[in-house]
Write a structure and sequence with these properties.
Layout (H helix, E strand, L loop, with lengths): L4 H11 L2 H7 L3 E5 L4 H17 L2 E8 L6 H14 L4 E5 L9 H20 L3 E3 L4 H13 L4 H4 L5 E2 L6 E2 L7 H9 L17 H16 L3 H27 L2 E3 L2 E5 H6 L5 H12 L7 H13 L8 E5 L2 E6 L2 E5 L19
Parallel strand pairs: 1-2, 1-4, 2-3, 4-6
Antiparallel strand pairs: 5-6, 7-8, 8-11, 9-10, 10-11
Length: about 350
């Protein structure tokens, strides 16, 4: 029997990480499951490999209630999981909180509920079906937002940012191969119309920007993925050097540095330095270019004992100066989101 590429990729993901393979053996695994072709492919591969690797996958569906069809899609996802012989848990998102963009809230709720499900199941890890095109889109989004090397590194195959390990075993596969593999299961994947909405930034990149770039450079996706790998190799050194220069001190949804330490940096390093401070504070995105310019303007005009720096830096975050220190923080109700909340620091 010929081994399918998706089965081989998932098996190779764990075989190449023996310690991880041992940690997840005979333990529940929370598999993010929309019921679409990508997550159906991942769930099927986990079930196929279960006898060999001792996996115990559980499908976890998040119903964001964004449209009238979301409850139907949740039920359809449950039926698909049942066809694949995998139990399914449906989790309903909380209402959109004031001050959140729809896209940011949906992502945060998804990961909050995935983590909550993993903990309730005693799962050894959370798995998502992000693939090669998702990775290319993420890199392009990070470029548009002016991310530093950490952001340009995009999604990591293995990340500990959520608490339980977050695993992405399909990052090297293209979506067409996942669709073909999902079709072998004989089920009809769920179609989520919110993926075609024009508002979310990722949909704009996927449906408008990437096709334009691909028309000029057909291998643009491969180039972006290579950029992410290069950024991940460089990021530990960049992070170490910036932290040595700035000596940042992070707190609850905040991070602060000495103003003079920041001012000593060359202007060319400011985007990376400020992106690093935002990441340490827990911000999803780095500051915008206009926000960086305004901060630099205010810092240049400051005087001892004079007016302090204070300006917004995007996404509900703000810079404030207190004596000789500059602090990035998220003021207001989002600073305390209640018990069990999760601040998602980008898609790493």
């Amino acid at each position: 029997m010929t081994t399918q590429p998706v089965d081989a990729a998932v098996a190779g993901f764990f075989s190449g990480r023996p310690e991880l393979a041992r940690a997840v053996r005979d333990a529940p695994l929370a598999v993010a499951f929309s019921g679409g072709p990508d997550s159906t492919a991942l769930l099927r591969a986990m079930q196929v490999g279960a006898p060999r690797f001792g996996w115990r996958p559980v499908a976890v569906h998040v119903d964001h209630r964004l449209d009238d069809g979301s409850a139907w899609r949740a039920r359809a996802a449950g039926r698909i999981a049942a066809r694949l012989g995998v139990p399914c848990q449906v989790n309903v998102a909380r209402s959109l909180a004031a001050g959140w963009s729809l896209e940011e809230w949906a992502r945060a709720e998804r990961y909050r509920l995935l983590v909550a499900a993993a903990r309730s199941l005693g799962a050894a890890a959370v798995l998502t079906a992000h693939h090669r095109l998702d990775q290319a889109e993420t890199v392009l989004l990070r470029i548009l937002f002016g991310s530093g090397t950490a952001g340009l590194g995009a999604m990591r195959p293995v990340s500990d940012r959520l608490g339980p390990p977050l695993l992405r075993p399909l990052l090297d596969l293209d979506p067409a191969s996942l669709r073909d593999y999902a079709a072998l299961s004989g089920v009809e994947p769920v179609d989520d119309p919110t993926n075609r909405a024009s508002g979310p930034r990722r949909n704009f990149v996927r449906r408008r920007l990437l096709p334009v770039l691909a028309a000029e450079a057909p291998d643009v996706g491969d180039r972006l993925v290579r950029l992410a790998r290069a950024a991940r190799r460089a990021e530990p050194t960049v992070r170490r050097l910036l932290d040595e220069a700035l000596v940042p001190r992070s707190g609850d949804h905040s991070c602060e540095v000495e103003v003079e330490a920041l001012m000593r940096l060359p202007g060319s390093l400011w985007p990376a330095a400020l992106a690093r401070l935002h990441r340490l504070a827990g911000a999803t995105y780095p500051p915008t270019r206009n926000a960086r310019r305004e901060l630099a303007r205010q810092l240049r005009r400051r005087s001892p004992g004079g007016r302090s720096v204070g300006c917004d830096c995007g996404g509900g975050w703000r810079w404030e100066q207190s004596r000789d220190r500059l602090r990035v923080l998220r003021p207001g109700p989002r600073e305390n989101q209640g018990t069990g909340s999760l601040e998602v620091r980008g898609l790493e």
